[in-house]
From TrEMBL:
Gene Ontology terms: biological process: isoleucyl-tRNA aminoacylation
Signal peptide (residue range): none
All copies of domain Aminoacyl-tRNA synthetase class Ia, residue ranges: 7-197
PANTHER family, alphabetized: ISOLEUCINE--TRNA LIGASE, CYTOPLASMIC (PTHR42780:SF1), SOLEUCYL-TRNA SYNTHETASE (PTHR42780)
Annotated organism of origin: marine metagenome
Pfam families reported in the protein's UniProt record: tRNA-synt_1 (PF00133)
Designated name of the protein: Aminoacyl-tRNA synthetase class Ia domain-containing protein
Keywords: Aminoacyl-tRNA synthetase, ATP-binding, Ligase, Nucleotide-binding, Protein biosynthesis
GO molecular function, one term: aminoacyl-tRNA deacylase activity
Length: 286
């Protein structure tokens, strides 16, 4: 695509840095470059072809599709180069680097091979943001760039501790539909947690810093992305005070909570009785 404001911002910083270092007596490459791979290229080509899924790409031919992606990169790299020249950037425009080059890709594969031979690459399990439409995981950059404040319901949930009458772990989530698969609550072994007693006698455990923490206070004060009609978010302390008050009975470390067991919100479901996953014990937490 043609340059966006974020391209101009990044290239301006790079240009200023290069000029400063050059005037300071350093030898520089003055090399401009293009990020040629990823969803930002593939999705645009799919739009041009009218594709709706990755199966359309397979029917079309992966090699043909890849070549179209490369042609798009070549087309818009020329456009961005001309735009950069017009902005007065000081670069070696005839020798830009491209991440899709054979030299770059073979170097990466060589490096990965070396890591594999040294036993530094392993297959594991992780949670990643996934695109059902594109059939791939999202990169951190793709997630961050699309971040914006939206108004929707969130919930506080209490998990009943086993063998502790009327005592609960207090958790907060913006994705309550994930509670059906909940299997663990994480704690920071070095963090302070409060044992709080509500007016009805219920005991709650949660991070001490969250008691008076004002969520999204900066965004509310700046009003840059704040949604009209949404009030300032309440602290947990405010919520308990509105329900009659509270007493902090004790402050303990997260390490003291390791090994506690609780009753999950959907432990009575049949599916929860089926063992699964890859259980392990972290010896550092024992």
């Amino acid at each position: 695509n043609p340059m966006g404001v974020h391209h101009a911002w990044g290239r301006t910083l790079k240009d200023i840095y290069n000029r400063y270092k050059a005037m300071s007596g350093h030898e520089l490459r003055y090399q401009n470059g293009f990020d040629c791979q990823g969803l930002w290229v593939e999705v645009e080509v799919e739009k041009e072809l009218g594709f709706k899924s990755k199966r359309d790409v397979e029917k079309y031919g992966i090699e043909r599709f890849v070549n179209l992606c490369k042609e798009r990169v070549k087309k818009y790299s020329k456009v961005q180069t001309n735009q950069s020249i017009r902005l007065g950037y000081w670069m070696d425009w005839e020798n830009s680097y491209y991440t899709m080059s054979d030299e770059n890709n073979y170097t990466i594969w060589f490096f990965i091979k070396k890591l594999f031979e040294q036993g530094k690459i392993y297959r594991g399990i992780d949670v990643v943001p996934w695109s059902g439409r594109s059939g791939t995981s999202y990169s951190q950059m793709e997630i961050i760039e699309g971040r914006k404040l939206v108004a929707h319901q969130s919930v506080f949930v209490r998990f009943q501790l086993k063998n502790r009458e009327n005592e609960y772990l207090l958790i907060w989530t913006t994705t309550p539909w994930t509670l059906t698969s909940n299997v663990v609550v994480g704690v920071n072994v070095n963090l302070d947690y409060v044992k709080l007693k509500a007016v009805d006698g219920s005991i709650y455990y949660f991070a001490q810093e969250n008691l008076e923490f004002q969520r999204l206070e900066k965004q509310y004060n700046e009003k840059k992305q704040w949604i009209d009609g949404v009030p300032k978010l309440k602290t947990i302390a405010q919520i308990f005070k509105e329900r009659g008050g509270y007493d902090v009975i004790e402050v303990l470390k997260g390490g003291d909570m390791i090994g506690w067991e609780y009753i999950g919100p959907y432990d009575d479901l049949e599916a929860q009785k089926t063992p699964g996953g890859y259980p392990f014990t972290d010896t550092e937490l024992e």
